[in-house]
Amino acid sequence: NNEEYLKKNLVPSKQIQIPQQWVAKGYEWMGPNGEWRDAALLIKVDKQPVNREWTADPNSGTGTKNEAVWVMTSDQVEFSTGWVCTARIASTEDAIKFLHNYPNGSLKEVLDSEVRSKLQACFGLEVTDLPMEELRKKATPHIQKVVGEVSEFFNARGITITNLGISGGFVYKDKTILEMLVKVFNSEQEKAIAV
User: Fold this and answer.
1) Taking burial as the number of CB atoms within 10 A of a residue's CB, which of 74, 79, 93, 129 is the most buried?
2) Cα 177 vs. chain centroid, distance in angstroms?
3) Is the CB of residue 165 less than 8 Å from the CB of residue 83?
4) In the chain, how long is the greatest CA-to-CA distance?
């Protein structure tokens, strides 16, 4: 379970022959008893991109449950955002790193568990000291910082994140916040029309 071993045993061809060995089970009345078994283990790495969408609505995301990323601002406003993520194992070197870090995992499972958890942690830490008003007006640099941190972290583990960003807007836990925002927006529009 180390990268050097995986490098040494890498088989890049599409057709390979798995060696067999005879495993004896003792003797029967007609002679030796046993069977042929594989003497090596073949692990295939799928390099196709995998896409995941984590949303609050079970009808719109990849999964059938609320998988949105929930965070809280400095003024105690709890909200969630949906996120989309596309990732792949881009090269042979990345395949070795991926197998070393995730020997039993598929890329899909890693995205739904570790990548989503890292995203939750990074986004939570990024917004926890910001007031909601500031985040609403200038969310882009904070989202870009989170995307950069998550992408860099997993690139070192053999996963290339080709797309990561929010899906939809902010969904507030307290529904009255959205109602108030709609009222403010409508009154501003009415003022603009009156002018």
Assistant:
1) 79
2) 30
3) yes
4) 104
Query: Of 107, 66, 62, 75, which Cα lies nearest the Cα of 89?
Result: 107
Q: What are phi and psi of 152, to 5 degrees?
A: -65, -40
Average pLDDT over residues 86-100: 91
The per-residue b/e assignment along 166-184, b for 16 or more CB within 10 angstroms, e otherwise, is: bbeebbbeeeeeeeeeeee
Q: Which residue is it, tokens 């739904």? A: 112
pLDDT digits (tens, 9 = 90+) for 163-173: 999 987 777 77
Q: How many CB atoms lie within 10 A of CB 164?
A: 20
142 forms beta bridges with none
The Cα 154–Cα 118 span in angstroms is 9
The tens digit of pLDDT for each residue in 109-147 reads: 999 999 999 999 999 999 999 988 888 889 899 999 999
